[in-house]
Protein 1
Amino acid sequence: MTHTLRVTTVTDAARARVATVRAAAAYGVPPLERARLATALSAHLRQCLTEGGTWTVALGTQASAPERDAGTLHVTVAPARDTQDDGEPPWRMSVTCTEAGAPPDPEVPDDTDLLAEALLGADEDTAAVLGKLAEQEELVAFHREELHQTNQGVVALHADLDTAWRAQREAFTAERSARTEAEEARRRLRFLADASALLTTSLNHEEILRRLPDLLVPRYADRVDVWLFDHEDERLRSAPHPAAAVLAARSGRPQYAADHPGDLPGVDDQPPSALNPGRPLLCVPLLARRAPLGVLTLSPPGARWDPDDAVMLIELARRASVALDNARRFEHNRDIAETLQRALLTDLPTTPGLRLAARYLPATHGLNIGGDWYDAFRQPDGSLITVIGDVTGHGLHAAVMMSQLRTALRAYAVDGGSPGRLLTRLHVFLHVFLHHLQPDLFATAVIARFSPDDPTVTWAAAGHPPPVLRLPDGRVHVLDAKPGAMLGIPLRQEIADHTVRLSPGATLALYTDGLVERRARGIDPGIDRLAAALEAFDPADLDTDLDGSADRILGPLLSDSERDDDVCLLLCHIDREAGGEPDRVPAGADHLR
């Protein structure tokens, strides 16, 4: 059903508005929607009145299918047909009807009734709108409170997150700092370990002093000076030392001399050195077990030291002190052992028809000296005893044992006896009388006896490398007849004698294992090399220069040696002028060349 109202004046517009509101109310349009419809219609009608002319307001309903009790209310405003402007489309608005109602009376009351009804309807709609607005205001207030609380929660959450972030950042910073400190500590410990290993591998105090600057410069020090109390030569005894170094030597405490406090743990601060006032100095005493060794003076690589680096340097100085003390004690013991060894080596006697040449070389590495010896002396019957031996072990104990064996051998030789008999008695002496003093020391030896007017030599060996014989024609033999066991082992033994005929021009070489033995190859290749060296000599060289020949043997044989053991060589040469029969190959000899 459609109702059409014509609007020309304001009164017509009011009537159309009232009719529209009444129709909307009759069809059950909610108040809020009615208010929106009335407001929109009033605004459009006001615009139409401004433009002038006659306008029509059409009210129509359309029921929803399939039921007919509800639908849509359509409101259309358009110019009247007689004034219609084809270029302007009509204004339309639709609202949903929730209830079925009786169609409104199209007749609108007079102006007074119209005004009253409009006012009442407007008040009613306004009241409905205000009620809705109040509800919405409450809802808005509720949501505003929720939003405020949410904002407060967000602010608190942001505060908590900021606090957590700051705590996490501080934790990360602390962790990074701890990791850096741990890396620095690990670096210092690694440096100390490497430096200690490098310092303690040498038993030469001068080598240790040379290694210290290489370790410290330029990372931990700009300059390194070592003042050793009893190792200065005469030219340096009057050289001045910093006052802090002198104080460190007297007090035994590290001293720091600079124009500013060092704040170094365990270090006393002192005024700057008068010798170099612009350079800070750290003076650390080198303390040994028995007495102070000296003072290590360092200047920093920059303006000053890190305290942890200073602690590390003090610890390094302590370890260097131990290494220096060990090296000096070792050198002292080695010097004593070498002096004792050389003092016990005899001067070779002169015998017609027989010339002797001996060489003794102490070990150059380690304390491996004191066990090798050679000797040559006459027996009462005029024969000449030559001996070369080696005491197991090294150092002072071996040197003392060697001196006792040498003395005992000479005493036994006074009573005469063959080389085998002398070695047997020496074995008993070592096993019975000396083992309670040095139970871990044993000995090896070779004794050869040359008799006057006898072209044969008698020899015996006890656990020693075999003698090597060069015949006058240059052939070389190793006298490897079965030797006795080592002297001093818990075994009863009778050491046998062996004889070999020597003709003029023959040379017998006695030696210790330091000449021929190498760790990687054993002893047999070394004996072969000794035999080859003897074979290579010209006979005239042995006749005219036996000492030089001994030197020429040592050169090539020791060229590949680490010299960690001492060496003895004794050459016994029969002069060609002595006469005699040609040599035969001796029994019990290995023909090498």
Protein 2
Amino acid sequence: MGRPGTAASWEIFFGLLEREASAVEFEAPVLEARAAGVSPAHLAELESAKLAALRVRALLERRARREAELAALFDTASDLAGLRDVDAVLQAIVHRARRLLHADVAYMTLPDRDRGDTYMRVTDGSASQQFRMTRLQLGAGLGGLVAQTGMPYCSADYFADDRFQHTPEIDAAVKDEGLVAILGVPMRLGDQVIGVLFASHRSVRPYGPEEIALLGSLAAHATIALDSARLLTETRSALAELSAANAAMRAHYITVERAAQAHDRMTNLVVRGGGVNEVAAVAADILGGPLVVLDAEGRRLAAIDPPGVSARDQLDDDHLLGEIMAKAGKLGRTARLRDLWAAPAGAGSEPLCTMVLQQSEELSGSDQRILERATLVTALLLLFRRSIAEAEGRVRGELLDDLLNGRVPDREALHSRATLLGIDLTQPHVLVVVDHGPQRRPAAWTTDHALSRHGLAATRGEHTVVLLPGSDPTAAARQLARELTSALGFSATIAGSGPVDLPTGAASAYQEARRCIQALIALGKEGATASADSLGFVGLLLSRGADVGTFLDSTLGPVLDYEDRRGTPLIQTLETYFASGCNLTASAKRLHIHVNTVTQRLERITALLGADWQHPDRALEIQLSLRLHRLRESAVLTDRIEPLQ
């Protein structure tokens, strides 16, 4: 420090220190004293005070710079603690490096693993687009040297420095930016260099150890930021994967739960004796859409519309149902056509049923399995029902066979066997014979028909014989014909007989019905339905005991009733009309009335008997009835005649 100066000399330099004067300003007091001609001793004191003040000033500058550096590092640490955007943190680090080192440009390069080179991740102060877009080969340039050695490297004059590999691309970019002095420090993560942080100037200058250390500290923070970002990304990725796995597990759980619920509900239905409709209702409720169940022939076994679901237009399209049913049957699994989803089920190679759901949205794999399971349960129910029907049908068929063969003479034994089958033989019964030819489908259908109506059925060759509750054989035969046509789509020749006097009258009733079928076929009326009572005069020939009164009532009853009430001689008019060869004029002459009167009477007869009463078949029956009526009126013929052999 030298000999202490006077208090006045120190006061001058303290003032300069206080207002943070530049180093040049500390020369002014010495120059002024020299110009004033002060003594050499005083000049020496001033010079000594100046040097001491400059040393203090330098110390203060270093401390201020160090405080700024520490503040910058503290800010960087704060940025890392609240890391949200890694690019923003890296940009802040590069900006601080440029500011603290008073650099013209600061930048950071990172390796690109996919392309095998390095690229500019962040720049600050750069004016050259070419420089910012530069990609560096691994190991090339000053940065390549830093990355390879893992040590800081600085060049006071880049283009004059031959200690590293120059490349035309890098040199052109550096020249375009106007850089001369460059300092690069490695960003180390363990033993690995993951990038390089640079500070550069556009003039020749060396870099001191403090600057290298400062830039190294910032590089360490940048490394932490990148590694934290990597860990954060990996953590987020792991969390996303965990969340996705959790969502998938939950979806799987829900799927399994729905499938288990569907299985439990359908199993409970089967155990409790539920049928096809109940299973279909469960499937529609779980899958949330209307559906139909079709048998192997495409006929509807069930149709369900869940509450709140109205769109079922495609399920009403029989052609579309046929297409989706064929497609599902060919695939052997769930098939889709427009908004319809169909699942088939069968026993071996025999198709049993198809369940068709209308659902516009994509049906998940689990929901498809639910639809298939519901169809399978339905098929099992149908098989079970068929087995029961076949077993019961055999028992019922054996009883009817015994009746037809006269092997149940004891009425008490008959009632005992019938009661076990749920049949009340105290009620009247009729016998219906269905001529279905060699086809087995009508035979199976008529057996089911008899079972559903608490009757008996037995198959005899190409006939199925059905014993049904009722007293009108014609009505029973016609109803069976209508339902058979509706169910199977074709007609069979059907005849009825009865009421049957059980147990002894079954055989004769069967023979009468067979004769009716033979008569229908002989008359060219295959596929028609009749009974002896409905065949008119032909029925008189076929009946076990012809009932003339019934025949007259069915043929002329309305005319006879009208004549009794009004007194109009319609019967006489009919007899005269037929006797005159259906000639109006001749009939009028014979009746001694006007032709218009004959016409009016014939119109009344048409209203009573129907428009076809003059058809040859009807006309023949009416003429026969007129003669029987005349005979009965003359007491020649009673209401009953013996059976014709």
Protein 3
Amino acid sequence: MSFVVPGPSGVSLRDRLKGLTVEDEGVLRLVGDHLGSLAAVDLKARCAAGLDHDSESWAVRKRELTGLSSSRWAGSLTKATHDLWALARRGQAAHIRQLEAGVNTIRHRLALPLGEKGSKRTAGGYRSRREWHAKTRRLRVLEDRLERARADWAAGRVRVVRGGKHLLHSRHHLEQAHLIEDVWRAGWEASRRFLQADGESGKRYGNETIRISPDGEVSIRLPAPLSHLANAPHSRYVLTARVSFAHRGQAWRDRVEADRAVAYHIHEDVQRQRWYLTASWAIPPAQTMPLTAVRAGGLVGVDTNADHLAAWRLDQHGNPVGAPRRFAYDLTGSADHRDAQVRHALTRLLHWARRHRLAIAVEDLDFTAETSREKHGRQKKFRKLISGMPIARLRARLISMATELGIPLVAVDPAYTSKWGAQHWQKPLTTSRRTTTRHDAAAVAIGRRALGHPIRRRTAPPRTHQSDGYGHRTVQAGTGSPGREETRPRIPGPRTRSVRPGRGANAGNQNAQHRPGRSAEHGSWQQDSLPLSP
């Protein structure tokens, strides 16, 4: 089922804090370390409470933190703690579902005879007795993990690491991570700092804790134990750096001048030795266009792959227009490099779609259950391929960037788009000067499905009436489309085996068909008109 994708519900901007002095950085580290220690204590208390948590215990924790910081800092700390706990619960539920899928798959395959082939949706039996025996042992391991995960879920126990589990494990494998202990320690301390404050509508510039004026001046309300470091009234510290958001800067200024809520987050990039400030706020969901209006002028079908986006423009009848386009990206290297590659590819795609004033059709992909090693067995190359596709990153980036440019997005069912696109469109679209790939054909299939047309190029008439008596042969042509009943192109050679070469009749000339009373029939077959009088 195709649908128009709703826009994002929030805005996030980031700018670098340039020109910080050594004193400014020292104050930021002291405040972040102090609040980070309070966040760790609060998270420990929240995890210990488990499912017994209620509003009263929340108020008790907030009162304890208020004396060590401030009322607003305590509110931000407890809210961040609840968000971490809720995120851990969602991850725990996803882990249980993954374990259940693996256990069910192994049990199904163990029950099948050795070497039995599977179907399109279910896996077959194992190839050898040795593999069968190894999977029985793995089944016991997965069942034990599933039992422990279910017990933790029932008891409300979660395991959260402030700073990240990946960075924690790197401490014991510094050589593999290409780190030294001092560099790791600096990154670990920076990731555990807490310097974020929620916004408040009606307060000055939308935030009393981290306040930024429209001209870019940044001031921070210091916690009570660090109030002696203030360089401004009311226990505030004003940084020498100024911020000026290059992207959506005017929207941010309009918001702070109206004293509307804006949340801020300050963090340090240890590798680059830079400080950044992120501003975010919620926005009302944008009004989406009706699907019929989006389909009116055609659209661009996009097929997502591991190293590029294949796109093809389609008109409103589902016919490919022009040549296919490919927007490549390289997903090797650091996370920032991968994110920049995805951003650059999407920018080129969106600008191309905006020049033609067309919507974009994408697949509603979700490879959460497709990466399981129990489902695909030894197909390590295929598992690596689908695991490397940046589906979540592409989806988030595409929605926000398309909404900013005013380009509608249509999500379609991804079932069999690559297979049927190659079956029905790859060969017809291949010419002597253009080689159509499987991905290009899949883009056409995605676009046709978004337009409401079947992926097949044309539907044949009933065998009992192989003509245009039941309607035009191309199903996407409406009754009011001009030219739908024009003559079809002449195909060389005979139309049937009973006609010798060179004697074929024009398919579009209805007077040339061998029917009674037609001029194409032989003269001896025609019946003369009866005389009116003897």
Protein 4
Amino acid sequence: MIWQLNDLDLSFLKLIRIIFTGLFFDLGVLSFLWTIISFYLLFTPKRWIGTIADKAVVLFGMGLVTLIFTFTFFAEITFWEEFHCRFNFVAVDYLIYTYEVVKNINESYPLVILIPSILMLVVLVFVLFVKNKVFSDTFLDKTEMKNRAIIFSGSLAVCLFYSFFIKNNQAEWSENRYNNEISKAGIYSFFSEFRNNKLDYAAFYKTISEEKAFATIRKDLDRKNSRFICEKECIKREITDTLQEIHPNVVFVLMESMSADFMRSFGNNGNLTQNLDSLAEKGLFLTNLFATGNRTVRGMEAVTLSIPPTPGQSIVKRPDNSNLYNVANVFKAKNYQCNFFYGGDGYFDNMNAFYGGNGFDIYDRGRGSILSDKIKTTRHLIKDEEVTFENAWGICDEDIYNKMIEVADKSYAAQKPFFNFVMTTSNHRPYTYPEGKIDIPSGTGRDGAVKYSDFAIGEMFQKIKDKPWFKNTVFIFIADHCASSAGKDEIDVKNYHIPAIIYGKDIIQPEKVETLCSQIDIFPTLFGQLHWSYTSNFFGNNVKANDYQSRALIATYLKLGLLKPNHEVLVLSNKKNCHQYLWNEETNELQLQEVDTKFEKETIAWYETADYLYNNNLLK
């Protein structure tokens, strides 16, 4: 609360509500612990109490619980620093991808101080208990079975009450997001997300009839150059271009955490992105483009499937996410080789399974995991001798570009046009990169990571400028999400603003496009620039088309928003309600407005149809 004091909406009554809401959820956490303890006591014979075995069980349990609570205290601090919220489904993911997470923590924080501090606090608790004779009193106690049964029954009743009737989102009582997050309990939030990281749209969000939802979306997607090839609950259509198609190679770079406000083009004076700024002047520069979410898998979902974000977990991480109609289908129909490059182990965030199940050959830094990625294409491992620098998240951007260049050379030699999809990793905590490359020391902060990521782009162009395939290649640079997405409002609109550049020497005409648009539009816009006729099962459209309908889809894993050019924002909540705001771009504040019914139905239509198509296996 002190940390975010300037962002809170505080009065005396609201302060009291934060504290007592937090206490209420803390009691919920403790109720589970009480149930476990009282269950043990219920079936412990009197003659067992105080024996060596009893002491071993109780002291071990006490030590474990104290260790968990102490560790959680420190973990919540580091998690808040990164995400500005209590534990959410990201924390649940971190249990699965322990290698990257543990290594990242080790490289980002002083574990030589943290781990001894945690252990010292546990020991301190034990010392205080011994000093106050808590243990000795406990092991002399001979509580009657009747009283033990009453204690267990009461604990169980409270535990079941929380399990069945208290949802984590009941702590969200304020319009200020920070008020809500501070009101929660970290452990309670964690287990809530563990149970609910996939949400049933119809159960949690406002809906309209499927017929009306698809009629609304089909009207939004209908264009002069498109023709629907299906009826009703479907968006599949044929896109036709009358001009001659061109088929250059395509290098697509999804840049980790590259917020728009890092660039000079958007007012940054730190000289961090001179290469990106230069490309922005030479290419098609989309200055008003917004990410769909705040995690890498959301960015991947948006650009690859051209689909609005569905609530809960990204499609990239869901089961049965292979053989979906995606941009690789369009490229393969034009005889392109499709490759996915990632500098870490693509098992992380299910990337290998998703891209390997949707037509991309994989190039990643595998660690020989015994867990299957279920890759349906070919996987190529990046070898040790190809790596000059590596941290928790993978090899540095220079190394991944070098691997991409090597594969591009082979494709060119085989006379095969290529579509190379590169996911970068350097702009991520612990912000480490090869020393001596830029004027900011490695590991000192975000600015250095941003500047190095930009430096690596410049180095890549130096290496390929004389390649025979360079002049016939289009490059796309776009962020997966912003470096931060936290704010006091339901959705922090500014922290979804990302840069997008389509550059191709003598192929793409330089232009600054200020039209409001979304990540889901990036490939339909590219296909329009190349004058391709193709089958589309995408929600995105060509931003450059005269009849493009401007809007941006922005969402957290629970809040689903639609932004309009007039700065109106409508946000759907998982409590089956919605709020409409007017976004002040200068102050980044949302002013509550009366809900416009037409706007509400349009917003519902975008998300309801996306969820319907995925769950009914219609994204093929």
